[in-house]
Structure formats: C-alpha cells, structure tokens
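User: I'm writing a short report section on ligand binding and want a predicted complex to refer to. Could you take this sequence and NAP and write out the structure as tokens? A short remark afterwards would be nice.
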Amino acid sequence: MLEKRSLGKTDIKVSPIGIGVMMWMGGKGLLGRIAPDVSDEVKNEIIKEAFEGGINFFDTAEMYGFGRSESNLAKALRANGIDDKDVIVETKWNPLLRRARNMRRTINKRIRFLDGYTIDLYMVHQPISFSSIKTEMKELARLLEDNKIKSVGISNYNAEKMRKAHEELEKLGIPLAANQVNYSLVKRNIESNGILDTAKELGITITAYTPLAGGLLTGKLHNNPEALKKKFAMYRMVAKRNLEESIPLVETLTEISKAHDVLPGQVALNWLVTYHDETVVTIPGATKAYQAKESAGAMAFNLTKAELEEIAEASEIFL
Ligand SMILES: NC(=O)c1ccc[n+]([C@@H]2O[C@H](COP(=O)([O-])OP(=O)(O)OC[C@H]3O[C@@H](n4cnc5c(N)ncnc54)[C@H](OP(=O)(O)O)[C@@H]3O)[C@@H](O)[C@H]2O)c1
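Assistant: Sure. The structure tokens for the complex follow:
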C-alpha cells in the first residue's frame, strides 16, 4: 500500500491517489451541459469505495457547476458518515474576468456549499485574471489568516508563474502546497517544460489531473472504439488524437498489470504517483463506483524499478 504523503511543505497528508468530482455538476453551469449525470446513489457509492479503499482526498471547484459539485461532494461524504477531520477537500476559485478581491466576497459561498467540510487546499483555477499573481497570493494569505482555508495552491500555472506564486507566498511565510496540471502517460510535457523540475526544486506537490486521459489508459476505448462515440467532445478529442499512438503503451500496461493481478489503468495511476518519488499525486475522475474502487486499488501494489522504466520508455513519444 502506498503511504500518505505531505501536500508540498504543509503538514497536510493525502493519499497519493484521490478522486476528482468535476463530473458532479448536475447539469449546471457551462460544463454541466456536457458532463454525464451521476445519480446520488452512485455518488454515495463512489465515495464509499474510495474512502474504504484508503483514499482521503477529493478535488472539486467553483467552476464545476458553480457550487453544485462542491455541494454534491459534501452530501456524499456526509451520507457515508465521513468526518471532516478524516478527509482533505480541495476546491478552486475561478479567476476568469475577476479581480483577486472577489475571493473574499465568494469564500463564504464555497464554505456554505461544502457544508462543514473544511477547505484544506484552496487553489486559483488558472492564471488568467484581472489581478497580478502577487495580489492573488496576498488575498489567499488573507483567507488563510482568517482561517477560511488551510493551505494555498494554484492550477494550470507554467513554471515561471509557479515560481512567482511561490516567491510571493514565501515573503509571507506561507508554502505553496500544489500546482494542479494535466499530466498522464499520454501527456508528459511537464517533464520537459520546467513545471516538474521547478516543483521538485521548490517542494511543491504536482496534482495530476486527467490522469487516465478520460479512460483511454484503462484500455477500454481500444477494446471498444464504439464507446468513443459516447464520450463528450473534450475526451473524444483527446482519445481520438492518441488512440492509435497509445496502442503499444496500453499493451505494455496490460502486460505489467497481469504480473501484479491488477488492471492496466491501475498500473498507469501507480506509475504517475511513484515515478517521481513523492512529488506527484493524482485525482482520477469516477462516474461509477467500480472506478473509484479500482483507483483506490492502484495504491495497493508496488511496481519494480524495471517496470517503472519500461512504462516510461513505452510512453516516450508523449514526452
Ligand atoms: N484544474 C483543472 O483545470 C482540471 C481540469 C480537468 C480535470 N480536473 C480534475 O481532475 C479530475 C479527473 O480528470 P478527468 O475526469 O478529466 O479525467 P480522468 O480522470 O483521466 O478520466 C475520468 C474518466 O475515466 C473513466 N474511468 C475512470 N476510472 C476508470 C476505470 N477504473 N475503468 C474505466 N474507466 C475509468 C471514466 O469515464 P466514463 O465516465 O466514460 O466511464 C471517468 O469519467 C476531475 O474530476 C477534476 O477534479 C482539473
């Protein structure tokens, strides 16, 4: 079993694999129209499987249905009788067309939607806003001081902007806990564009989103390309672009998975959170309970050094 690890230089401990609940938008907001609906019963089962499997952290955002995903997460945690102190919840402020001071105006909404579950990590969702990074970090520091949030993070920041955010927070004596970015075996550009190196140098956790490339790395789309038609546009694009090129990689994952009596997608997740020691954690999405169970199960075995390298080599074309 892979052990819990610290979020950056904070004392917050997370399981290397969490669960992202972006899909739980309930048809609200821009993204809600394209995300499949997940019933309350299934949401509860997803949280049950995840928590019982050793997952303790969950990712949501204001943008995911303007509070709908946050409130659905809180409901499902509560339905399972899970205590606030036993989970780490991360959510994100949407900076688009806003100034940093909007954070203090909207934070109580986030708190209300999360209904008793602490905001353990509060992130700026992406770097485009009317305010500077310096002003945004000062605003996050203020929320921290007011005890509205427990730690500070960013998402989709490049290496230069991540370093700037780190420097501004450092002046205030606050660690930058995490940068959440798109990272998987079919999207490895953070290994060459400075993001990963900067995170390692500064002790910032990388939270990998879309770690299964929307399910592509489980092999299910290679086995049944018809299923691609059911995927919504964003995933169809990612999957279509990589379907052919990822065949040898998925074959390698499948081969290695057999040796551990697990599944190819579990090997892909395990690789992501072990290849760079403890720098990377990940938040696969789940729309069915079995998926959360499998994601949790991806922490229950150890790949050998030779297997880690074999997988890295098989996905070299995605570097
Ligand atoms: N910060 C950002 O800008 C940002 C952007 C995107 C995502 N995120 C976060 O990252 C999380 C995950 O990303 P994601 O949903 O884009 O991609 P993902 O985790 O790569 O893909 C999730 C999808 O993969 C399939 N899947 C998951 N486990 C499976 C299993 N065991 N077997 C077969 N299929 C499985 C499911 O597809 P089906 O539903 O088709 O079964 C699921 O919806 C989101 O929930 C969100 O919290 C953050």
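A remark for your report: The first helix runs from residue 29 to 32. The chain has one domain: 5-215+265-304.
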